[in-house]
Amino acid sequence: MPTAIAVTSADMALPPQDERTLPAAVLQDVGRRPLERTLAELQGLVDHHGHVIVMCSQALPASVVRRLHTVRALLETDRIALFRPPLPPLGLAVLARQLRQLASCDLSPGVLASAGRLLTHYIHAGALLGSVARLDHVPVGLKSHARSWMPGSRFGVVAHPVPQVVRIGPEAGLEGPEFGTRLLVAKGQLPSDWVTDTLAPSWRVQGLREMPLPADSPAWWGTGKLTEFCAYLPDLSVLYQLVASVRQSRCHWCGIDVIGDRCVFCSATPPEYDEGRDRAPGHHHGPAIGHRRERRALTG
User: Fold this and answer.
1) 10 and 107, same domain (yes or no)
2) Model confidence pLDDT, tens digit, residues 248-263
3) 98, 70, 68: which is closest to 83 by C-alpha?
């Protein structure tokens, strides 16, 4: 069975992008349900799919994140990856759908999980905000912060890949992707006209769709007066080519194939050796102390 892509709320499970997009596994009410039920649910996903990648928003309450780490530790498995990329909720939902697209391909679980880190760089996620006074995830200058208190102020913000904050005006603009993308727009308590009529043409998007605002978005952006947007690569062939073109290696700890310098399942990074230490052929020194500490922390 293909690797399962799990999300922590139903609004993170976007509609399929194409006929090959696999459904998401929705972990409902992780922080409120009894521990045994979440434990059984994830155990069932592991038994059925072999590996599970859980996409976690950085807006999740700390109690939910602790619960997920607890379940992973109790199951004593390296087959559950807890992945928390630095994306706002809409961007995270888009990335989860991209992984659901790729899960239908011939990618191993480790490579698929690593693909999440790679594809994050190709997502341009931002929002139109009525205030940046409580925006914690993007650096805000003193002038923009002061203007937040002026009635009618609106700000265009890009949180990823490069932070940007501009006050909306006749000359306001945000730097966007230099490649063809589609735009997903989630309207909150703020009109989306600037996003659809000004931003989308300036970014030369190849299509635009609207969806409901994710429940975690107001907490992430620090205000309910927003319209969130995300530009992304929609085509499975392009996504697969990006992932397949990267050199693969084997995780020295758990043995699965990965791309990049960190295994998303066991959190191990390449071992560091002392210079001058004897490295006879076939002699295995094991991971450095820092990597053991990282593994115990179960950081995804």
Assistant:
1) yes
2) 888 888 888 888 888 8
3) 68
